Amino acid sequence: MPEAVVDIAVERRAASPATERRTTGSFPTQRARRRYVIVLAVLILVCIASTVGVMTYDNPMPFGSDGFWRIVDLRADALRVIAIVAFCQALATVSFQTVTGNRILTPGIMGFEALYVAVQTASVFYWGTEGINKITGTTQFLALAVVMVVASTLLYTTLLSGRFGDMHTMLLVGVIIGGGLASLTAFMQRVLTPSEFDVLAARLFGSIAAADDDYLDWALPISLLAGFALILRSKRLNVLGLGSHAAANLGLHPKRETMIVLFFVSVLMAMSTAMVGPMVFLGFLVAMLTYQLADTHDHRYLLPMSALVGYATLSSSYFVLRHVFYAEGRVTIIIELVGGLAFLVHVMRKGRL
């Protein structure tokens, strides 16, 4: 090839943005790092805008009056619930997908939602409509959370520590348990009266309004402890994301580390589900958006951004439902619709599960 042609090709390659020097760090290029910072700033602005919108929009009292701030304080409770749920779902789903090596699965596959629905249905089945009142309050909230954490921890330790234990077996058992609970729940629902079923159906939608303010005193510190424990293990999550064999070669104990991560995941999911009910597609939607926006494999950057994406998604949905459709609290309607469509688009683009 003539030297002039070679020189022109080298100059074009140097001038092209695609030939920017790539590194093996958290971001492949400096452009990707700048993009992450810009996206993070935009997400912070969206979170601030949605927070201000929920707290102040359509406030009937004059600005600055005692009544105005009283209404703002009442709406702030809903935002605190949204922040906790978004934090729990986002960090739990990203960490769960890393240890399972699959970006389609969510912690819901382990039967958290199925157990919540079974407990709610059983309370109405045995005690009638009064049963709903029997499973409200801080004691019942903590009891439900403890049952979820203990059941999932026993499942993880039993199936992952055995001689033939592996991740796929654990996921399969989780699916079977979830299917069994769903069948038992369907049987109990069939013998309920129409009025009992109507009351039960209202409880089975994930709802911000369903959370009691007393739950926050327990859910906030527990969620923060579990969430920051995962953030502190970000480097270990990066290694686990390479696969069990690579993690073992790099000096990590894959099964022990996986069980620790899954324990914190179960705590976060138990807090979220026991507080507002099942939200099947929220975690998947948040995780998928985070991967697309962050453009990095490093969990030190993925986990904080996922929490912001979750809060922006949930608070924006809450604002739209409250002020456009006047369906306060029923954010599951939008989350399930958008998350379900995102799931289908994602699967069709990949061409496989």
TrEMBL record:
It is found in: Cell membrane. GO terms for molecular function: transmembrane transporter activity. One of its GO terms (biological process) is siderophore-iron import into cell. The chain crosses the membrane at residues 36-57, 77-96, 108-128, 140-159, 171-192, 215-232, 260-289, 301-321, 333-349. It comes from the Bacteria. InterPro entries: ABC_BtuC-like, ABC_transptr_permease_BtuC. It is a multi-pass membrane protein. It holds the Pfam family FecCD. GO terms for cellular component: plasma membrane. Its main location: membrane. Keywords: Cell membrane, Membrane, Transmembrane, Transmembrane helix, Transport. Belongs to the binding-protein-dependent transport system permease family. FecCD subfamily. This is Iron complex transport system permease protein.
